[in-house]
Design a protein that fits this description.
The structure is a single chain. By secondary structure, the protein is α/β, with parallel strands linked by helices. It has three domains: 153 residues, GTP1/OBG domain (Spo0b-associated Gtp-binding Protein, Chain: A); 170 residues, P-loop containing nucleotide triphosphate hydrolases (Rossmann fold), CATH 3.40.50; 70 residues, 2-Layer Sandwich (GMP Synthetase, Chain A, domain 3), CATH 3.30.300.350. The chain has eight helices and 18 strands. A six-stranded mixed beta sheet has the order 10-11-9-12-13-14, with helices on both faces. The protein has a five-stranded mixed beta sheet with strand order 3-1-8-5-6, with no helix packed on it. A hairpin with a 2-residue loop joins β10 and β11. The chain starts with a strand and ends with a strand.
Length: 424
Amino acid sequence: MFIDTAKIKVVAGKGGDGAVSFHREKYIAAGGPDGGDGGNGGNIVIIVDDHMSTLMDFRYRRKYVAENGENGSGKRCSGRNGADLVIKVPRATVIRDAETGAVIHDMSDGQPFVVAKGGSGGWGNQHFATPTRQTPRFAKSGLPGEEREILLELKLLADVGLVGFPNVGKSTLLSMISAARPKIANYHFTTLQPNLGVVSVDEGESFVVADIPGIIEGAHQGAGLGHDFLRHIDRCRLLIHLVDVSGSEGRDPIEDFKIINEELKTYSPSLASRPQIAAANKIDILSPDSDNLERFREYVSGLGIPCIEISAATRKGVDTLVYKTAELLRTLPPVKYFESEYVAPEPKTGKPEDVVITVEDGVYNLDGDWLWVIARDINFSDYESRMHFERTLRKSGIFERLEKMGIQEGDTVRIYNLEFEYVK
């Protein structure tokens, strides 16, 4: 099964907590603090695997979590860093932010990309010793790793895209000009997934062609296979627009040409504006009394689009089409690379006065960006760290605000998932 989009959640590892420890050794007095730092959390790294051609691997697994960093320990021993989690994707996969749709990175360059960075490890108490505070009994907690939902979108790397109605001969043409062997049959939607073929022109010169399932009128509204596969020609520098000029299915070639271009324009004005070559196909079965070919040639020539008459089945005119395609490609810019559009949100900071205090069922709830930044650095399992947090809240005026709201000793205060009794 061909899967070309996937939505996944990535969670980088949390940094390990710093340690609270003091050097204790025989004959060494006042050894001092020697708590080690926590290790950094593992990153989520995306790499290219050229053996992959679909995003099938992401159909059943939707969440990827990297390893946390280990906590620090005594004797200034730092915790081990969490291992990076590596995710493999096909080349040409575009990574987007699931919420905004903005491009985060295009994996066409083949370079590893860190999509979520692990949290930094917390400092051990060795860092907090001063001449006036020689026995610090607190350390910092490790920071959480980045967490986000991303959309993986496969956009094939091809120089040329074959477009046209179903059954106009796109797959037949691809099989004639390359070593690709797509399924070929005389019914609509034989092609159910994109096919790639490499076309050799001369020694050292070649180009890649993408054959996508046929488009029909109303594709932008979901008719036929819709626009599901048009993303695979987003990068193409040139489009070969195949049209059945024989009228074998009772359609008018000029109308077919207009309809397909309108569907391309609806999907992406940029794609519709790409250079095109009109390939008038099936001339081998064209009726002698039909004027389809003349009318079509005159119409596309009026648009400034070159028209090549071919028969993909008998290979008549195919070489002319290949050389014309190579000639135009030499004048066009390289395959499209999607630049990053993603703007990372500003880190939470805030001010103490921005902290919101609400009372619900006798519980005082505190919430705010400033509070989040302060709380994430505290190791609540350590007494000294908790006392440091309490002093920070008192100095900031939070306790004064609580008292003005009528809080009494013994009342419950909730800060995120932490609850404690208020003590004056």
